[in-house]
Write a structure and sequence with these properties.
The complex is a heterodimer. Chain A is 41% helix and 19% strand. By secondary structure, chain A is α+β, with helices and mostly antiparallel strands. Chain B is α+β, with helices and mostly antiparallel strands. Chain B has helices at 36-44, 101-108, 118-127, 152-164, 170-187, 191-204, 217-222, 225-235, 251-262, 311-323, 329-336, 365-385, 389-401, 410-422, 429-438, 442-453; strands spanning 18-19, 58-61, 68-73, 79-86, 112-113, 116-117, 131-136, 141-148, 241-247, 285-289, 295-302, 344-349, 356-363, 458-463. Classes of the chains: A alpha+beta, B alpha+beta. Strand 4 (88-93) of chain A pairs antiparallel with strand 1 (18-19) of chain B.
Chain lengths: 434, 465
């Protein structure tokens, strides 16, 4: 077969450079010279799983309060400064990380760096702002979860899969937790986790490495840091059980199936990450994948099917398979067909098939360099979880190096040895009294 | 014009990301920044302010078919993006009794073409990293291609096959029909979607904009190969084709690309004329009862289209009222000062036959009435009193300073080049755009505020009232 060679002679994905300031803040610079624009992202290596027990929602509420002012830039001044400088400014919180970012004209980068550095240590939370922002995150949870049945289903799956691990808790916190958070809870989280050593700064855009370094020193270099990084946290080992979640929901109109396995991540049995990435692509990424060809095109048991592997976690990674049954196919029949299709796809695994899968994974990588926002996002998401820079740059090589044996081994282990949940979401159907 | 949070591929990895929905002001701006002069100087004196940036757009004509396109050459990365629009071939112009066929065609063009059955075509596209997308909005049928320079010839050849020799095999049609019907059912799961469909029906009435973009079940099931082919012959024609090309490609090569990509398309066809929507805004409202976590509302008044003389003043006025993100008046009053909602906004909806200003928010039932009253009050106050000079200055600063962000990706650029042609903005639009904003004065903004924001509205709600 025809083989193309993406990244030939240019093995590095981003051509990034990194350096560490004296206070421990790591800075990664990614060049992009097309237009005079730049993305600044400051990633803290802490998210909802780092919250104190019972304090669910602190990481996320803090993220909101970070827009409510410091000693120097008070009240709504941060948002106005961003507006005045034409910045698209936002932030997000996940289980593992919290990220603050601005996309702006490169001529306006310096005020954004000043303000982002300032709020790393100098946040001031007034009682009034605290109460308002707690109401806002409460409304946010209502909007994202209560008005969305599939989000409720996902929360339930996570709760069951992750057992007693903090990964099983909602990133937003539960309603009760949100309403019981205090300013002290937020300040405690802020003091502990918002320090130079526990953050990664990404600058992607039209400047050079020397300038990026000088500006990072100028704005972030003076922030006092602690001597050592916080010790890595241990998360509980999950019991290797297979669970089921069956949710009937009055607002759901059409059934679907979701299986999730807790497996390797970049921080847990990391040697299996690339085989699992190749496996997910082979099995269920896109309409050329094995599961799609079998379940949708040939067997006509499903209208869609996809596999997805997320290795970015400080604990286990997750491998998920989702499917929507065809009309007249019940979820039990679909599950059986999925099992059969998976086994058949493993039987068919060959060097040629692996080569084809790798080719499709590598072919799209080049586009990641194009948009500085994408590049900064991918770099920050991986670097803040601890993936070494070289490894991020050389992903193409890592993917190429996956061999037949490791793939077979990991495929078998995934389904037989991992903690897992099978979930079915379906319409309410007939209401039985009991 | 609305927020679209889709990030291809890698974004999925941060699965449960929750965001502050922050984009960007407020009434009393005195002393908001103690050291604001110092901060202004940071930008004014920045060593980073010296980059010269041209963004030169040229118009090319293909040698053989004499097709025109806008081109922006950029060799930062060895990739090329093409965006095209078949104007007036969107779902509002679907034949009566064939509603939904534009979107169905869009779904089926990638399911096999020429000698390539669907699975083979997709393998070929994916293994070369060639990305193809088709879609239909109310007004237009759109397509896009993203490829590496190395794979450009094959990408163009495949795109041509998809446009001119789609296979429309029975099995593929049957599958897509089932997928569409499933998608129709899923629309009813999400209150925002339910509300939007109801909004369209209430607002547009008998105008084809009232249609469900996916069509109706009965009609979807009646679609066959002959009808799909007829749709293509009638609608996908060079007479209404608009193309934008961006990336690592020169003028001559771009001209040859046009000839190769669109060879074999009919020059003319049979486009259904869609009349301007004559909408009746009379302050009516309708509501849907549903037991959900938050009530959601949408409210619309008539707006001004992209080429209307009021466009820029209205654009700036809307930015101040509800387009600025966190610093807009609506966000300040309803979110930032009261905590009644996670998000409240207004935007200009620029559909060709019925430009609108749309506003909305969602709140829990206990806070909903207060939020809705504030929204009405802010609209009214804005219409009556307009904006202040200070608000206008800030809006201009944001809108001009953020202008270069449109060049974030080659795909954004090619799509923008197509839009520039659709709206006749001119080859030098990118150079002039900031002047168009800077020239807007307070009188014109406040005239627009009075003319548009004081008008009667139509509103719809869903939830527990």
């Amino acid at each position: 077969m025809l083989v193309f060679a993406p990244f030939e002679g240019r093995a590095k994905l981003f051509g990034a450079q990194s350096f560490v300031l004296d206070n421990g803040l790591e800075v990664v610079f990614i060049p992009n010279r097309r237009a005079p624009i730049v993305k600044q992202m400051l990633w803290y290596k802490s998210g909802s799983v780092d919250e104190a027990p019972g304090k669910g929602g602190s990481a996320h509420l803090l993220e909101h309060l970070m827009f409510r002012g410091t000693e120097k830039i008070s009240g709504q001044a941060f948002n106005r400064l961003m507006e005045e400088n034409g910045a698209e400014s936002n932030a997000f919180t996940s289980t593992d990380v919290t990220s603050y970012h601005q996309f702006l004209d490169v001529s306006r980068l310096e005020p954004a760096m000043f303000a982002e550095a300032d709020r790393m240590r100098n946040l001031k939370i007034s009682d009034e702002d605290f109460a308002l922002e707690r109401d806002i995150v409460f409304q946010e949870r209502k909007q994202r979860i209560d008005n969305n049945p599939t989000a409720q289903f996902s929360e339930e799956i996570r709760r069951v899969l992750w057992q007693d691990s903090p990964y099983g808790r909602p990133v937003t916190g539960t309603e009760e937790e949100i309403l019981n958070l205090s300013k002290d809870d937020i300040e405690a989280y802020y003091r502990r986790y918002y320090t130079p050593r526990q953050a990664v700064l990404i600058l992607a855009g039209n400047l050079d490495a020397a300038t990026a370094r000088r500006l990072a020193e100028k704005y972030y270099g003076k922030i006092e840091g602690e001597a050592e990084e916080l010790p890595a946290r241990n998360f509980p080992a999950l019991k290797k059980v297979r669970s089921r979640v069956e949710m009937r929901h009055p607002d759901v109109k059409t059934p679907r199936l979701l299986k999730v396995f807790a497996t390797s991540s970049y921080r847990h049995e990391a040697e299996d990450v690339y085989p699992l990435r190749v496996l997910a692509a082979y099995m269920g990424e896109g309409e050329t994948s094995k599961l799609y060809k079998k379940l949708v095109l040939r067997d006509k048991k499903a209208l869609s099917v996809n596999a997805d592997y997320n290795p970015l976690s400080k604990s286990y990674g997750t491998f998920s398979i989702g499917a929507v049954p065809a009309e007249g196919v019940d979820t039990a029949e679909l599950e059986a067909a999925l099992r059969a299709a998976w086994d058949e796809a493993l039987q068919e695994l060959s060097l040629d098939e692996i080569q084809k899968t790798k080719q499709k994974m590598l072919a799209g990588l080049v586009y990641l360099r194009d948009n500085p926002e994408d590049a900064a996002y991918v770099m920050g998401a991986m670097r803040s979880i601890g993936v070494p820079l070289d490894e991020i740059e050389e992903q193409a090589d890592r993917i190429r190096a996956v061999d037949y044996r490791s793939l077979r081994k990991i495929a078998r282990r995934l389904t037989t040895q991992s903690p897992q949940v099978s979930g079915i979401l379906s319409p309410e159907g007939e209401k039985n009294a009991l | 014009m609305r927020y679209r949070g889709k990030r291809r591929g890698w974004g999925k990895w941060i699965a449960v990301a929750v965001s502050a929905a922050v984009l960007f002001f407020a009434a009393d701006a005195r002393n908001w920044l103690r050291n604001k002069d110092e901060l202004r100087e940071l930008a004014a004196n920045s060593e980073l302010g010296k980059i010269k940036f041209e963004a030169k757009v040229t118009e090319i004509t293909s040698p053989r078919l004499r097709l025109k396109a806008y081109l922006l050459e950029d060799a930062e990365n060895p990739i090329v993006s093409v965006s095209f629009i078949f104007k007036n071939a969107g779902y509002a112009s679907d034949n009566a009794g064939e509603e939904g066929i534009a979107n169905m065609t869009a779904a089926l063009l990638t399911e096999g073409a020429g000698d390539y059955p669907g699975a083979v075509l997709k393998d070929e596209l994916e293994s070369r990293g060639i990305r193809v997308a088709f879609g239909a909005d109310k007004d237009d049928f759109t397509g896009s291609l993203l490829t590496t320079k190395e794979n450009l010839p094959q990408a163009v050849r495949l795109m041509n096959l998809m446009l001119t020799q789609p296979r429309f095999e029975h099995d593929d049609i049957a599958r897509v029909q089932k997928q569409m019907i499933n998608a129709l059912r899923r629309q009813n799961e999400n209150p925002n979607q339910v509300l939007l469909l109801e909004f369209n029906k209430e607002l547009y009435g008998s105008h084809p904009y009232a249609r469900n973009p996916l069509g109706r079940e009965k009609v979807i099931l009646a679609v066959d190969k002959a009808r799909l082919q007829k749709f293509g012959q009638d609608n996908l024609i060079t007479a209404n084709l608009i193309t934008g090309i961006a990336g690592d490609i020169g003028e001559e090569e771009a001209g040859r690309l046009l000839d190769a990509m669109f060879a074999g398309l009919p020059q003319s066809g049979s486009l259904n004329f869609v009349r301007n929507a004559d909408l009746n805004f009379d302050n009516r409202s309708c509501q849907i009862s549903r037991d959900i976590g938050q009530n959601v509302m949408l409210r619309a008044v008539g707006g001004a289209g992209r080429t209307h003389e009021d466009f820029y003043p209205l654009y700036v006025a809307n930015y101040i009222l509800g387009g600025a993100g966190l610093t807009s008046r609506l966000s300040q009053k309803i979110r930032e000062e009261k905590g009644l909602t996670y998000g409240v906004y207004s935007y200009l909806s620029l559909d060709d036959k019925a430009p609108l200003i749309v506003s909305g928010f969602s709140s829990t039932p206990d806070k909903y009435a207060e939020a809705e009253a504030l929204l009405e009050q802010e609209w009214k106050a804005f219409a009556e009193n307009g904006a202040s000079q200070e608000e206008l200055d800030k809006a201009k600063k944001y809108l001009t300073a953020s202008n270069n962000l449109r060049f974030a990706s080659i795909e954004n650029i090619s799509a923008m080049l197509a839009a520039m042609q659709k709206y006749n903005l001119g080859l030098d639009f990118l150079q002039k755009r900031n002047d168009y904003i800077s020239q807007i004065d307070l009188d014109s903004v406040n005239r627009a505020a009075k003319k548009y924001f004081a008008a009667p509205a139509v509103s719809v709600r869903i939830g527990s009232f």
